[in-house]
Design goal:
This protein has 197 residues and is an all-alpha fold. The protein folds into two domains: 20-110, RNA polymerase sigma factor, region 2, helix turn helix motif (Rna Polymerase Sigma Factor, Chain: A, Orthogonal Bundle); 122-197, Orthogonal Bundle (Arc Repressor Mutant, subunit A), CATH 1.10.10.10. It is 74% helix and 0% strand. α8 crosses α10 (172-196). The radius of gyration is 20 Å and the shape is elongated.
């Protein structure tokens, strides 16, 4: 092996991939640098898991779906258009996999508060805030996926309407309509529970 080749290899090993942009990591992955893809997985595995959670029945299922999403993305990486955001492209793959899984299963979705509970302010308000977050999250998970997934993407992941539209393969007005309907359905469910409790 020539000296130039060794230099390239050493530079590849010492490269701080966490400082690279997504598109740079995609390019390096396409050139054969698997560690760059590992960095993309590290960046987005929790987010992909959150998107897939409403479609899954058990925690192990979510892990399997996350792994399948990244395998599909890796297999299709050459089709990625660098004019778009990798994150949005990846979440579209995850959402499509979730929809396919749901069609195959037709199961009721459970909610795991440890995965979806929001952060709390202080120890005194922790119990109340956790109960409130669990009630909201549980109510979200009773909604059909058509409405729960956009809510999660918008309010948990803080994605824009355009990003959600791209992930779900629908128009921006359709996203706004689904979110409007989802918020109304959610408010109704929370009112019912408040009156019942």
């Amino acid at each position: 092996m020539t000296l130039g080749r060794w230099r390239e290899r050493i530079q590849g090993l010492s490269l701080r991939r966490e400082s690279l942009e997504d598109n740079e990591l995609v390019g390096r992955t396409l050139e054969g640098d698997t560690r760059s893809y590992e960095e993309l997985v590290r960046r987005y595995e929790r987010l992909v898991g959150r998107v897939l959670y409403p479609y899954a029945r058990r925690e192990t299922s979510v892990e399997d779906l996350v792994q399948e999403t990244f395998l599909r993305a890796y297999d299709r990486l050459e089709t990625f258009n660098p004019d778009y955001r990798f994150k949005t492209w990846l979440l579209a793959i995850a959402n499509n996999l979730g929809v396919d899984t749901l069609r195959r299963r037709r199961e009721v979705v459970e909610f795991n508060p440890e995965v979806h509970a929001g952060s709390t302010g202080g120890p005194e308000s922790a119990a109340l805030e956790t109960d409130r977050a669990r009630a909201v999250q549980a109510a979200i998970m009773t909604l059909p996926e058509t409405y729960s997934v956009p809510l999660i993407l918008r309010y948990t992941e803080d994605m824009s309407y355009a990003e959600i539209a791209e992930v779900l393969g629908i128009t921006v007005p359709a996203v706004k309509s689904r979110l409007f309907r989802a918020r109304n359905m959610l408010a109704g469910k929370l009112r019912e529970e408040g009156e019942a409790g």
